[in-house]
Specification:
With about 300 residues, this protein is an alpha+beta fold. It has helices at about 15-65, 150-160, 165-175, 260-270, 275-280, and strands spanning about 75-85, 90-100, 120-130, 140-150, 185, 190-205, 210-220, 225-230, 235, 245-260, 285-290. It has a domain at about 45-190 and about 220-235 and about 255-285. It is built from five helices and eleven strands. The chain has a seven-stranded antiparallel beta sheet with strand order 5-4-3-2-1-8-9, with helices on both faces. It has a four-stranded antiparallel beta sheet with strand order 7-6-10-11. Strand 6 and strand 7 (about 210-220) form a beta hairpin. The chain starts with 12 loop residues before the first helix and ends with a strand.
């Protein structure tokens, strides 16, 4: 008889080790690719949300600036931009000026609710607060930018024809400015206003006059603490007499918007506002230049 040996079907130890190594490599690669894809998706999502916040702020402020109202030949103040340092922010600007905004009287111009006039006063302020309760406490605090428009009739009665409208606006309409209904956007860590001014400079013998463009910045990167346009000229703090007779031609609005993850970190720490590396990682920068013809 002939003995036939039967071979058992299966894998050898070496084959199993090779298969496990290949599987581990594939799984590791997939995890790394998925992690990169998730990071990219989260980053894109954060940037898109930041872009929407910045657009909401910049477009609203630009529309008000485009209808800026200034009258020469008087001592009244027509625009006040003051540097301020809200909680947890390195700096921002509180802005008050007169404008012919089209949303006066809630946009019902010419209706029975229109009490006349076309010059309104608008104020912008950035605060660290809860956007829902409008309070300084709570678990959902963030940077909230509010805008309050005062209709022409109360503007004429309370603000027009005053020498200092910045502090007067805050003392008269500060509570309305903080109302939830005046919310514009959130997560705006800081914003900067850069005024473009044409200045006539006389020099040389014989004397010649040239027009120079000067930039005055209010906010994180600026040296000015206050910028004021009066009917008698431009005033600044610290004082710069060369700007007195200048003509404002444009204003640049620069915005830093924090991602939601950055806001969450800021709620837990107080020392991140001046950390340049942290800001570069968690914030997005946006800007817009608004032309002001005839100013």
């Amino acid at each position: 008889m002939k003995n036939l040996s039967k071979r058992r079907a299966g894998f050898t130890l070496l084959e199993l080790l090779v298969a496990m190594t290949v599987t581990t490599f594939i799984v590791t690669s997939l995890v790394a690719i998925t992690s990169i894809a998730m990071d990219t998706w989260n980053r894109s999502r954060s940037e898109l949300r930041a872009s929407r916040q910045a657009k909401s702020m910049v477009d609203t402020m630009a529309r008000d600036f485009e209808s800026l109202v200034i009258r020469r030949g008087n001592d009244y103040e027509w625009l006040s931009a003051m540097e301020e340092s809200p909680d947890k922010s390195s700096s921002a600007a509180t802005l008050v000026f007169f404008t012919a905004a089209t949303d006066r009287y809630n946009g019902q111009i010419g209706s029975s609710t229109d009490l006349g006039g076309d010059v309104s006063c608008v104020g912008y302020q950035l605060k660290w607060r809860d956007p829902i309760s409008a309070g300084s406490g709570g678990a959902f605090q963030t940077f909230v930018l509010n805008r309050h428009l005062v209709d022409p009739k109360p503007t004429f009665e309370n603000l027009l024809g005053k020498t200092e409208i910045g502090q007067l606006f805050l003392s008269t309409y500060g509570s309305e400015l903080a109302d939830q209904q005046n919310f514009v956007c959130e997560n705006v860590f800081q914003f900067t206003l850069t005024f473009h001014i044409q200045v006539a400079v006389t020099s040389g013998t014989p004397a010649t006059t040239t027009i120079e463009n000067r930039l005055v910045t209010i906010g994180p990167s600026g040296s000015m603490q206050k910028f004021s346009i009066k009917g008698s000229g431009i005033e600044t703090m610290p004082v710069d007499l060369a700007l007195k007779a200048g003509k404002i031609t444009a204003v640049g609005i620069s915005v830093s918007v924090l991602a939601d993850s950055g806001i969450e970190q800021l709620r837990k720490a107080n020392d991140l506002a001046n950390d340049a590396e942290w800001l570069a990682k968690n914030s997005y920068q946006f800007s817009k230049l608004v032309q002001l013809p005839g100013m």
